[in-house]
């Protein structure tokens, strides 16, 4: 085993050395241009895709050379058990991944920590581990693609797709990557056998193989539906790209201006003041209260959900937030050296949550920066080099954005909308209390827009909830208009239900042909993910028509599965089990049965002899 590992390592050592050198030079080049530890998620995904591709190419080449019939027989006819032979080959491949992918990242990280003033936290120390895991996942997928049966060997790509859509971040993401690697390794060991391409025989091997095959078939059906939707769009009859969208639908509402949307919400208002409000809306400015944070930043996430650094132009210092210290760490832009740390107040206290530069404060001085951290809005006062708290929303809420409206400052959180007096905001010794608070009449994941009009006797506030009208997660789209008087009382004015613009079977297109796999995909995507208000939806129950459609398709899949199972080399118990699986999972299970289990061999009739003729 040791000799086989050594021989396999020597076969690739030159290529590994060249790749590691090129990898390290590329990292050094990009680190001279930007701070690699503070890049957004799409940059890390591109780099991770390169590591996955590296592993795939290594697995394809290594096992592609051994898969030739003569080479494979020569490999397995050694005085070693097949599992020990597999361990030697896999160990050499993992050693190559460690030297070519992990080691250059470690060297670059050490240089950034010791030779520069950039912030290096625990979240950066797990980057080499994550790089190695995604490289190993690609390696196992490439090796399985060579050794397994060609009809379903590509199902290993499902796990690579899972790594790029997983919502987990930071240390929990390592657990997701580890689970994917363990499953792929188990698949590789199942396929590593003398009779290459043979169907798995034991129950654990069948389950390990059938689940990714079924998920791959499920994703392929979704892809076919997406191709059909593209054809719908090219015809010009898709509601999203129609010149004149359907009247009263959410597409028409999204295309409206803020004033038109507010007037549409007031159209059916029954209040006696509705005519006056419509006139004031026509003459006033409509202010859109936007979310300035793309998402809530999890602690120790590997990438940046939102920018965590800002520059002080006067002192030429870049302040970058440290997840370990929960303070901003300074770096001089002139020489790249460290320049101290910056916390809250005169004592440089730690922030209660991850702080990101975002928001607007009226009357800020030149060089000042607004910072959002949890439920508090801070101001970096450039003239004194200090961070002070300015506003606080309700306990347990998360501040998402700010917008000046006249002489007031409107704050949007994940639960409510606040109105503060903005005239003396920066002069207050302590954060002032809000004049008005408007609870959001829905969940934050459904909300798309919040708009406000300043009236003579208060405010008109419009909330539109239509974020997920294309699938079954979000609430049915609607718009609600509220009136907030000067005393802070909130009066509902009107609620307008928006037409979905799509038939019901379109919204549930990912569910009705396999409810089980839809649930599995949803749970796997959110596994170990940090809770976020952007993923809180008021999901309605599945309509009865879609349940009946799923039931009919389940019976159809069970009948097709029973017919396919009868034509396979299976025992009676296995045929019943496969039929039940097809009834439970649906059409993807039928596809896995047809691809994994070989057909029954038919008896060959003997040739006629001269005597019988």
- The count of DSSP E runs of length 2 or more, i.e. the number of strands, is 17
Percent helix, as a range, is: 40-55%
Overall pLDDT score: 89
Share in β-strands: 15-25%
H/I helix tally: 17
Largest sheet composition: 5 strands, antiparallel
Q: Main sheet: which strands, in order across? A: 1-14-15-16-17
The SS-based structural class is alpha+beta
Radius of gyration: 30 Å
Q: Which spans of ≥5 residues are poorly predicted at pLDDT below 50?
A: none
Q: How far apart are the first and last residues' alpha carbons, in Å? A: 60 Å
What is the general shape?
flat
Give a quick rundown of the structure:
This protein is α+β, with helices and mostly antiparallel strands.
What can you see in these coordinates?
The protein is an alpha+beta fold and 613 residues long. Helices cover 45% and strands 16% of the residues. It is built from 17 helices and 17 strands. It has helices at residues 2-33, 41-66, 69-76, 82-115, 122-125, 127-147, 157-165, 171-191, 203-235, 250-255, 258-265, 274-283, 504-507, 515-525, 544-566, 572-585, 587-596, and strands spanning 286-288, 309-312, 317-322, 327-332, 338-342, 355-357, 369-373, 376-381, 386-392, 399-405, 408-413, 416-421, 436-439, 447-455, 458-465, 478-485, 490-497. The strands form four sheets. A five-stranded antiparallel beta sheet has the order 1-14-15-16-17, covered by helices on one side. Strands 2-3-4-5 form a four-stranded antiparallel beta sheet, with no helix packed on it. It has a four-stranded antiparallel beta sheet with strand order 6-7-8-9, with no helix packed on it. α9 (203-235) crosses α17. The longest helix has 34 residues, at 82-115. The protein is flat and about 90 Å long. The two termini are 60 Å apart.
């Amino acid at each position: 085993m040791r000799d086989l590992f050594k021989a396999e390592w020597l076969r690739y050592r030159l290529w590994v050395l060249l790749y590691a050198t090129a990898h390290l030079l590329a990292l050094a080049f990009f680190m001279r241009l930007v701070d690699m530890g503070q890049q957004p998620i799409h940059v890390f995904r591109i780099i991770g895709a390169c590591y996955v591709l590296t592993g795939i190419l290594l697995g394809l080449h290594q096992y592609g050379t051994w898969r030739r019939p003569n080479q494979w027989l020569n490999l397995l006819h050694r005085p070693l058990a097949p599992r020990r032979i597999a361990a030697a080959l896999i160990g050499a491949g993992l050693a190559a991944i460690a030297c070519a992918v992990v080691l250059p990242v470690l060297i670059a990280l050490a240089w950034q920590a010791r030779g520069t003033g950039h912030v290096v936290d625990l979240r950066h120390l797990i980057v080499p581990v994550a790089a190695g895991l995604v490289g190993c996942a690609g390696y196992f997928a490439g090796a399985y693609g060579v050794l397994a049966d060609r009809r379903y060997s590509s199902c290993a790509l499902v796990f690579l797709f899972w790594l790029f859509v997983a919502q987990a971040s930071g240390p929990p993401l390592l657990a997701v990557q580890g689970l994917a690697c363990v499953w792929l390794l188990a698949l590789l060991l199942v396929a590593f056998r003398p009779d290459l391409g043979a169907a798995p025989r034991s129950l654990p091997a069948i389950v390990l193989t059938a689940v990714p095959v079924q998920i791959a078939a499920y994703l392929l059906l979704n892809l076919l539906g997406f191709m059909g939707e593209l054809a719908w769009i090219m015809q010009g009859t898709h509601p999203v790209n129609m010149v004149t969208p359907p009247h009263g639908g959410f597409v028409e509402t999204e295309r409206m201006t803020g004033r038109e949307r507010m007037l549409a919400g007031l159209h059916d208002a029954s209040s006696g003041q509705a005519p006056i409000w419509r006139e004031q809306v026509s003459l006033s400015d409509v202010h859109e209260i936007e979310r300035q944070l793309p998402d809530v930043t999890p602690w120790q996430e590997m990438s940046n959900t939102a920018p965590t650094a800002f520059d002080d132009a006067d002192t030429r210092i870049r302040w970058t937030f440290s997840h370990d210290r929960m303070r901003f760490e300074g770096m001089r832009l002139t020489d790249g050296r460290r320049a101290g740390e910056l916390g809250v107040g005169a004592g440089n206290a730690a922030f209660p949550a991850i702080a990101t530069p975002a928001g607007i404060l009226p009357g800020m001085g030149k060089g000042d920066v607004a910072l959002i951290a949890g439920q508090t809005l801070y101001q970096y006062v450039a003239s004194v080099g200090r961070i002070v708290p300015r506003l606080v929303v309700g306990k347990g809420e998360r501040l998402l954005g700010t917008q000046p409206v006249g002489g007031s400052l409107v704050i949007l959180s994940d639960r409510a909308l606040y109105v503060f007096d903005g005239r003396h905001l920066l002069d207050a010794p302590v954060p002032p209390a809000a004049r008005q608070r408007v609870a959001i009449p829905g969940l934050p994941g459904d909300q798309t827009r919040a708009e406000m009009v300043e009236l003579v006797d208060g405010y008109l506030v419009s909330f539109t909830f239509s974020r997920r009208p294309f699938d079954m997660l979000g609430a049915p789209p609607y718009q609600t208009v509220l009136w907030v008087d000067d005393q802070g009382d909130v009066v509902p004015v009107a609620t307008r239900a928006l037409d979905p613009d799509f038939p019901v079977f379109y919204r549930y297109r990912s569910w009705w042909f396999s409810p089980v796999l839809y649930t599995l995909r949803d749970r796997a995507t959110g596994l170990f993910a940090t809770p976020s208000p952007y993923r809180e939806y008021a999901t309605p129950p599945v309509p009865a028509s879609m349940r009946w459609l799923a039931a009919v398709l389940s019976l159809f899949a069970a009948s097709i599965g029973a017919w396919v199972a009868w034509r396979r080399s299976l025992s009676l118990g296995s045929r019943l089990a496969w039929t039940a699986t097809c009834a439970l999972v649906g059409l993807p299970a039928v596809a896995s049965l047809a691809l994994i289990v070989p057909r029954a061999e038919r008896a060959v009739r003997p040739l006629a002899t001269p005597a019988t003729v």
